[in-house]
C-alpha cells in the first residue's frame, strides 16, 4: 500500500541534537516540511556518507523551511557516541532520531524484520503531516542530498501552485505544466 498522501502515524521518540536529547512526536512535524531519512545503522559505511551529504546541504533545506530527521534503530546514546567519535557525523546539525522499539521504521514500512534494521528510506512530509515523497534504496546504494533538495522544491512548488505539475528533471525557476485537455498527446 502506498504511503503517499497518508498522515504520519503517531510516534514518540528521543533524538540526539547538538549535545542534547530531545523528544520528538508526530505533532513536532506540524506546520513545516520534514524529511525522514532512514538508514540501517550507526558506525557503518554508506550511512555516514549520506548523513554527511545531508549535513553539507542542511542550510539549503533550512532556507526552504525543512527539518531533517535521520532515523535508525539505534538508541539515542549510540547516536551521541557516533556523533562524538566521527568527524563526518560530528558536523550534523539536524536531529538523529532513535527507533530502538522499531515502531517508526514499521510505521513507514522500511523495517527489515529479521535484521531489526531500517531500509534506506526517504520520506518528505508536508506541513499537514502528510507524506508527499517516498524513495527506498537497496542497502548498498547511497542517496544524493542535491536530488532530494530538488524534489522538495518541486513538492513545495506544486503545493503552492495546485493547478501545475513539475515535469521530469524540473528545477526551480524552470517551466511547469498546466494539465488540460489541450495538452493531452502534445508532449
From TrEMBL:
Write down the top EC class of this protein: oxidoreductase
* Catalytic machinery residues: 47
The segment(s) forming the Thioredoxin domain are: 2-157
Record keyword Disulfide bond present: yes
Q: Which reaction does it catalyse?
A: a hydroperoxide + NADH + H(+) = an alcohol + NAD(+) + H2O
Q: Which GO terms describe its biological process?
A: cell redox homeostasis; cellular response to stress; hydrogen peroxide catabolic process; response to oxidative stress
A GO molecular function assigned to this protein is: thioredoxin peroxidase activity
Q: State any GO CC term.
A: cytosol
Pfam families, A to Z: 1-cysPrx_C, AhpC-TSA
- Supply the name of the protein: Alkyl hydroperoxide reductase C
Give the taxonomic lineage as stored in the record.
Bacteria, Pseudomonadati, Pseudomonadota, Gammaproteobacteria, Oceanospirillales
Amino acid at each position: 500500500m502506498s504511503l503517499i498522501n497518508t498522515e504520519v502515524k503517531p510516534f514518540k521518540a528521543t533524538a540526539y541534537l547538538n549535545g542534547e536529547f530531545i523528544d520528538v512526536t508526530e505533532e513536532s512535524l506540524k506546520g513545516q516540511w520534514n524529511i525522514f531519512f532512514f538508514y540501517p545503522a550507526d558506525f557503518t559505511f554508506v550511512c555516514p556518507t549520506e548523513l554527511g551529504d545531508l549535513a553539507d546541504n542542511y542550510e539549503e533545506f533550512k532556507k526552504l523551511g525543512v527539518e531533517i530527521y535521520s532515523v535508525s534503530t539505534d538508541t539515542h546514546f549510540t547516536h551521541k557516541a557516533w556523533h562524538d567519535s566521527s568527524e563526518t557525523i560530528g558536523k550534523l546539525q539536524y536531529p538523529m532520531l532513535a527507533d530502538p522499539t522499531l515502531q517508526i521504521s514499521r510505521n513507514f514500512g522500511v523495517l527489515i524484520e529479521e535484521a531489526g534494521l531500517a531500509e534506506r528510506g526517504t520520506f518528505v512530509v508536508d506541513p499537514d503531516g502528510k507524506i508527499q515523497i517516498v524513495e527506498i534504496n537497496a542497502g548498498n546504494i547511497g542517496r544524493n542530498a542535491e536530488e532530494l533538495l530538488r524534489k522538495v522544491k518541486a513538492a513545495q512548488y506544486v503545493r503552492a501552485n495546485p493547478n501545475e505539475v513539475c515535469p521530469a528533471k524540473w528545477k526551480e525557476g524552470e517551466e511547469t505544466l498546466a494539465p488540460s485537455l489541450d495538452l493531452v498527446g502534445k508532449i
